[in-house]
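anyone seen this seq b4? input:
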Amino acid sequence: MEEKSIKSLSERAMYYGTIFGGVMIAANIFYLLGLSSSIFSTLFLLLILSSPFIAGRLAINYRKSEQDNQMTFIQAWHFLIIMYLCAALLTAIAQFIYFTFMDNGYFMSTILQQFDTFASMEDIDAALRRELTATADLLRSMGNRDIILQIFFTNIIISPIITFFIAIFVRRNA
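predicted toks r here
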């Protein structure tokens, strides 16, 4: 019975992770559109800030529909980690498709232009100017795959921390 429950939890976490991945892909689209329009930048910010609440809501929906409204902290954390990892994988695939077939250097040139604009401002500190220049040089040396892998691994490292706090609110004991 316990093995069926764990398999079901993992399977459903992947399903909800796919839904959450769609939210993260939408956030990435709003980020890219926000590079040239402030309204999309605001939508990106709202979507990113609300993403832990969306993840929590998805986990609560799972708890209510398939766990008889009972879920331990460990079950909730396990569910959320798998959900976040599936979402990160789906987002990385979407980013790979975007950077490989659609970007044509738009993202990197826009970001580097912003770094160069900040670095050329006269009222910033020299240390900050050096740091901006060094970061821009690092970005110039990175390829699209390097950026995608960096984002993916950052998501993998941050996910257990974020999901720990979400699981506190998702859990419900008998």
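Residues 2-103+144-170 form one domain. The chain has one domain: 2-103+144-170. kinda curious what u guys think
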